[in-house]
Amino acid sequence: MSLKLETKTEHFTSALYLESGRILEPYDITYETYGTLNDEKNNAILVCHALTGSHHCAGVYEGEKKAGWWDALIGSAKAIDTDRYFVICTNVIGSCFGSTGPLSPKLPSIEPYRYKFPVITIKDMIKAQRVLLDRLGIHSLEMIIGGSMGGMQALMFATTYPNFAKKVIALATTHATQPWAIAFNKISQEAILRDPLFKDGYYDPDEIHSSGLAGMAVGRMAGHISFLSPSSMGRKFGREYRSTDGMFELFGKYQVETYLEYNGYNFTKWFDPLSYIYIMKAINIYDLSYGYDSLEDALSRIKTQLHLISFRDDILFLPSEMEHIASTLESIGNTNFSYTEIASDYGHDAFLVEVEKFDFMIKKILEG
Predict the structure, then answer these.
(1) Distance between CA atoms of 364 and 360, rounded to whole angstroms?
(2) Under CATH, which number does the domain 6-176+288-366 receive?
């Protein structure tokens, strides 16, 4: 059957009250849907994206070859079966793929927000998604699923709206961002801020998308290292040297260097630097226990069936961080959860790359 991919944007004129105490008004949310919503509107699954992801998580746009970032998991007869479920993925507020973010016009002016855009949190992101779902007439979900920052959103949904979803799956994530991950984000932030072409946030977006931003590329290279692992890098590149470079040329490159350069500089042409800074901030301040007496207090609110999946060689959000969530749930007497550590040496991005190692688990969870 057809994936029935549709991309839409909803405009909201009512105020979105943020955790910071500020208000976002008006605002847009761009989202993508797959499959068909049934008459009872109870077959919906929400997919939450990671830091540089978007609402395009499956299928291929007309005229393009690159499929959505979780295409291996979502589609007809796949683990998240669009013949059976209505799947929705939104672009989070603060991002740069259609939802309101730092470069959106600060109405009634036509000038973009830039630094006047409010600091956004993970809780703000899911609150906006909940508003969208309400508008679509979806008042309960079969499942919420996400990896990395998407996993943060999934866990935040489970604690903030305890009865909203029957099942929640969080992959490669944490209960609170730890100093190791914050440190990588700091490198990216500093590299962007110190780049003269960033112009203190008053850059020309068209110029950046055309020529790139060197500082942002360097920051992305550092971040990209945290998405992989020593094993996966060794397997992918070995000590291969670029064939066109001499070994004793000062700036001759190993294949791993070429790879990081390509991904770093290419990234700056399709992702906005201010959105990158704002979303990294949201990740840095994420803490599931914020506003509660303790993590135990926060997790005690969960009523849904919760499934936690980590990856053995993830050096960004360590398996021990997800084990801590599991042990805390166990300590408060929650028996309606599961925790699985996937044997993977790929690294953090395993949740995107090695779908075959857990897609059968997703299918089994959906089948009950």
Answers:
(1) 6
(2) 3.40.50.1820
The residues assigned a catalytic role are 148, 314, 348
Instruction: Provide the CATH topology of domain 181-281.
Output: Rna Polymerase Sigma Factor; Chain: A (1.10.1740)
Per-residue pLDDT reduced to its tens digit, 134-148: 999 999 999 999 999
pTM score, two decimals?
0.97
Distance set, CA 113 to CA 24, 65, 119, 228 (Å)? 11, 33, 12, 34
Q: Where are the domains of the chain?
A: 6-176+288-366, 181-281
Contact 258, 272 (CB under 8 A): no
Q: What is the pLDDT of residues 234-258, one digit of tens each?
A: 999 999 999 999 999 999 999 999 9
Enumerate residues 6+ apart whose C-beta is below 8 A from 77: 83
**Spatial separation of the C-alpha atoms in residues 75 and 79, rounded to whole Å:** 8
Count other Cβ atoms within 10 Å, centred on residue 110.
7
Nearest to 314 by CA among 271, 354, 265: 354
